Amino acid sequence: MSLEEDDDSDRETLPVEGAGVAGATELYPVSHGRLAALASPIDVTDPEETDEDAKRHDAVLRALLTENGGRTIVPMRFGMVFESERALKNVLRGGRGAFRRTLHDIDNRVELGLKVVREQDATVDDETIVERVSDELEPLATSSVDSGEFSDRLILNRSYLVDRSEREAFDTAVGELEADLEDVMIRYSGPFAPYSFVDVKIGAQR
């Protein structure tokens, strides 16, 4: 499920065609006021998170994020199930304040990820590299968070919340880092729905 600001006048342009998870064949917005949750009807209450469904879920979010000029969305965790559209609308009604504040915070922004990994057997100054990356990228982002470590060779792993208007400048800055920094690999990813910058928790209602 994902949440977004909805305008009835352009609902027909929402890129919601295609399959949902757990065998669902339909995707559609369930609205309350100017909020809409993208949902699909399924006949299970606890859908298994298979690789196929995870990819399908991600594809739907990417479509909402990028097609037709892109939408501002609040990504919700995979597999949220509600017993009816009314139950989902009640959640939208009860959480509208939190949802609207979150939508305001991430309005017209996307999440981009950057990992800097030391080449095998290379010797580099980690602190200098982190400082250089921060100097180049932090001014172009509205916020950033550490995304944790996965390797002893990892120097930096951060997610950045970036205005769409700054996306080209951010891409250019990453390209310059790739050209200038030696003995490291830079892994640049995105855009993603801003999972790392959303902290709205709601419970599924069954």
Task: Write structural notes for this entry.
The protein has 5 helices and 8 strands; from the N terminus they run E-E-E-H-E-H-H-E-H-E-E-H-E. It is of the alpha+beta class. The protein has a 4-stranded antiparallel beta sheet with strand order 2-3-1-4, with helices on both faces. Strands 6-7-5-8 form a 4-stranded antiparallel beta sheet. It has 2 domains: 2-107, no CATH class; 109-195, Alpha-Beta Plaits (2-Layer Sandwich), CATH 3.30.70. Helix 4 packs antiparallel against helix 5 (167-180). This is GvpL/GvpF family gas vesicle protein. Pfam families: GvpL_GvpF. Residues 1-10 have a biased composition (Acidic residues).
Q: Please indicate the percent range of residues in DSSP E strands (runs of 2 or more).
A: 15-25%
- Largest β sheet strand count, sense and barrel closure: 4 strands, antiparallel
- Derived from helix and strand composition plus strand pairing, the structural class reads alpha+beta
Radius of gyration: 19 Å
Number of helices: 5
The low-confidence runs, each spanning 5 or more residues with pLDDT under 50, are: 1-13
Number of domains: 2
Q: How many beta strands in the DSSP annotation?
A: 8
**Helix and strand succession?**
EEEHEHHEHEEHE
State the strand order across the main sheet. Answer: 2-3-1-4
Ends apart, CA distance between termini: 15 Å
- Gross morphology: elongated
Mean pLDDT: 82
What is the helical fraction, as a range of percent? 25-40%
